[in-house]
Request: fold
Amino acid sequence: MPDPSLSLVELEQLLERIFLNHGTSQDVARSLAANCAAAQRDGAHSHGVFRMPGYLSSLASGWVDGRAVPLVEDIASGYVSVDAAGGFAQPALQAARALLVSKARSAGIAVLAIRNSHHFAALWPDVEPFAREGLVALSVVNSMTCVVPHGASKPLFGTNPIAFAAPCEGRDPVVFDMATSALAHGDVQIAAREGRQVPPGSGVDRDGQPTTDPAAILHGGALLPFGAHKGSALSMMVELLSAALTGGHFSFEFDWSRHPGAQTPWTGQLIIVIDPAKSPGHGFAGRCRELVERMHEVGQARLSGDRRYRAREMADREGIRLTPEHLQQLQAMAAGVG
Ligand code: NDP
Ligand code: PYC
Reply:
């Protein structure tokens, strides 16, 4: 028997029911369900349905407000700010999106600074849609202290991803989305669950010694930045842009110890949107295509984003496959017993 499969709409509806049954507003349920279902469809497993128990446990702990109403502030010709009011970052982005795009199109560039927000998801769903509208987008979000800065002895930074999306003539947008740690925290959790070691250089144990044991990283140990001092500098930049600039918390600045079950980092997010129609000759998407073609010519077969697009094509044809256990677990959550 093949694993059961759902269409994107079916999975979104199932996840939306789960969020609603666990106390979120309709807007929040819709926004988180769309994000999580898209990650599952694209094979982004560290941020697909794997995350549902964490969302629910954070909501149940009272740490995140699933009914928060974001407050959008029109700060300047190229600057929008949102107070997510202790809720999730995705509905805050939705609330500010139209204003952000209209500012980017008139000024050529606009910034969205989200604060007082929880981001527990992949970052590419926040940027890819801008590129599908012909815009270039860059986003950063910080998370929770679990990464040792290069040369330091204790964790301070979060796993702090950076995502970028650009329109490209004749093909899907060029998108990358990467943690600035050697591994995303979610991938360490998955490795621990599956009894796999993580690659050397990923993390250290509670004594600061290098380890490939995911349990040692998760329980008292920490992750390392990717690329030594270079990834560490990018992670520092993510802290500054996501927290210092937006008015959000640094990854080390919040204390969730009084909310057992809390898992969603309470931080900030920055999104920069650029309108390439303002560039000379309006030729950005064509230039992007030229670069991609040259990358292929020199032998790079797989570009960042391509694996997700292939997974998406397959899911669009054959549905999104879930193990019977995962589907049962989701159905139990939707019925309010999970
Ligand atoms: P990966 O290392 O799996 O991938 C990073 C990027 O590199 C992706 O764009 C990926 O494209 C691309 N890529 C991977 N392998 C290759 C290859 N062989 N050739 C070319 N390109 C390649 O991602 P991470 O583990 O760093 O991050 C996973 C997710 O975790 C991200 O979505 C991130 O946003 C999320 N995250 C969220 C956090 C939060 O606070 N909300 C914190 C940290 C991480 P493709 O996708 O097509 O494979
Ligand atoms: O996988 O590192 C991670 C992560 C942190 C917050 C959400 N995802």
